[in-house]
Amino acid sequence: MSEHFFAPCPRGLESALAAELTRLGAAQVSPVESGVGFQGDWPLCYRVNLWSRLASRVLWRIAHGPYQSEEEVYRLARAVDWPSYFDVDQTFAVSTVARRCPLKSLNFVTLRIKDAVCDRFRDTRGRRPNVDTARPAVRLAAFLDATHLTLYLDTSGEALFKRGWRKSKGEAPLKENLAAGILHLTGWQPGVPLLDPMCGSGTFLMEAALMALHIAPGLGRGFAFERLENFDAQAWARLRREAEAECRPRQQLPLWGSDSDAAAVRHARRNFAEAGLAPVVALERKDVLELEAPAAEGVLVTNPPYGERIGDLATLAEFYPRLGSVLKQRFAGWRVFIFTADTRLPGLMRLKPARRTPLYNGPLACRLYEFPMVAGSHRRQR
Ligand SMILES: C[S@@+](CC[C@H](N)C(=O)[O-])C[C@H]1O[C@@H](n2cnc3c(N)ncnc32)[C@H](O)[C@@H]1O
């Protein structure tokens, strides 16, 4: 039976996610802002949770209908047979997102949906499930536009960018699905040399390693669908077995990471060790301004310090021109991608981007700049 799902993702990655979902077997794939709707059966939902590198979560559509008042929201939510979806002993939480919703208080809407779920349980089970807003077993997501309410059950639980390997964060790490999406946009393919010279906790390199070794990003974690009443344990066990069989043997890969901060390199090392992937990547403490290219050509992708988050604007204004010179002098033959919220960056580096792709890091508007470092570009740029 075909179910309706919605997978939110970082803004800017919608069409990449649509392509990924199609590859995974989804039907009726329709990208909208910040996510992609799709249809499929339950094994597909499990597969997307297990394999999607770009989705933030997978929401299962339970109810959809028009509303004009809080009372109509309550009635729509009350009409859902919640006890057929999850057990009364599971805790739950409701989160509400709205766009152009005419109702006054979203908190009140959330409260009415919670009441409706509890009342429905009381009707059929004689008691109600507890609410746990911090670590609920079951998450309900309500989406209201100007006229319609959609209710979803979250099949993922913890967001999918939490792959389960990150024990050590460091400063300002990228979300894993955003890093995977950026890698996708660079066109990098396993086997091509990849360098992140300001690697922090190593997110780009970790995502690249998982892709190269064909490791399903969700293999090391659990999912909320395992707690739903309709959970098909056999189908899930089969998908996991298949994913385990697809992992390629751990081996050294052409992946290099460095950072000038010893603690960042320690974080990255700990993360790779935790994922059982220490031997696949070369990590070292080094200032990017002293780095030599580790191969004749490849993809350099990085997310440098950003003024508002780390470091200070004046220091960065000195740093970027020097970075531009290093790239021109030592990275001829490489394709360089820089992900940043700082629009001064190409000007300060004195490099003209061949492409700039708008992306969001949470609410922060960013760009992925591509600078092809063709041999001789140094002279031309000057
Ligand atoms: C925004 S963080 C990168 C976060 C990383 N993408 C992650 O997901 O964890 C920027 C990193 O650049 C490093 N950095 C700053 N200046 C550097 C330099 N001159 N050479 C090498 N690394 C530098 C910082 O130590 C920091 O780890």
UniProtKB/TrEMBL annotation:
Keywords, alphabetical: Methyltransferase, RNA-binding, Transferase
Is Nucleotide-binding one of the keywords? no
Q: Where is the THUMP domain?
A: 44-155
The answer to whether the entry has keyword RNA-binding is yes
**What name does UniProt use for this protein?**
THUMP domain-containing protein
Q: InterPro entries, alphabetically?
A: DNA_methylase_N6_adenine_CS, RlmKL-like_Mtase, RlmL_1st, SAM-dependent_MTases_sf, THUMP_dom
Task: Give the organism, scientific name.
Answer: Thiobacter aerophilum
Return the SUPFAM superfamilies for the record: S-adenosyl-L-methionine-dependent methyltransferases
